[in-house]
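Morning, I've got a small favour to ask if you have a moment. It would help a lot if you went through both lines with me. Thanks so much in advance, here it is.

***
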Amino acid sequence: MISFFNKLRSVFSFIIAKLLFSGIVIILLLGVSGILLRWQGLSPMWIDPLMRHLVLMIAFLGATLASEKSLHIKIDVFATLIEKLPHSIKKYLYLWTQAITFIIASFLTYASYQFFLIEKEYPQPSIFNLESYHLVFIIPLGFFLVTLMTFLKLFDLKHLEKNEGVND
C-alpha cells in the first residue's frame, strides 16, 4: 500500500514537472511575442491577463513540487534544533509536521474553493469569452495539488529510516 502511494507520488511529480516546464516555455513565448507585436504597433489585449494567470498556475505547480521535496516552508532555527533531537523523536515530529501541513493545506483548498464559488456567483467577463471564475479556478486547483502532494508525502516512510535524517 505504501509503495503504491510512493509510486503515485513519483508519477504525479513527473507530470507536475512537465507541466511546470511547459508553462514556463509558454510564458516566455507569450512575453517575447507580446514585445515583438508592440514594436509593430499591435497589442493583443489578451496576452497580459493570460500571462498573469499562467504565472499564478506556475507558482502553484512550483509549490506542489516544493511540497514534494519538503522545501515549501522551513524555519532554519527550528531545523537546527530538530537536528539535535534523537531519531525516535524526529520521526514522530516529521509525521506531526506533515499532518499539520496537510490540515492547513486542506483548509486553504476549502477557502479558495469558497472564493471560487463567490466568483462564480458574480461572474465578470474575461479573456477569450471566459467568465472570471474559469480563470480563478486556478487557485483552488493549485491548493488542491499542494494538499494532494502533502497527503501522499505522509506515506513517504524513507524519512523515518534510522540512517536518514528527517530533513534530507
Remarks:
- The chain has six helices and no strands.
- The radius of gyration is 20 Å.
- The chain has a mean pLDDT of 85.
- The first helix runs from residue 2 to 39.
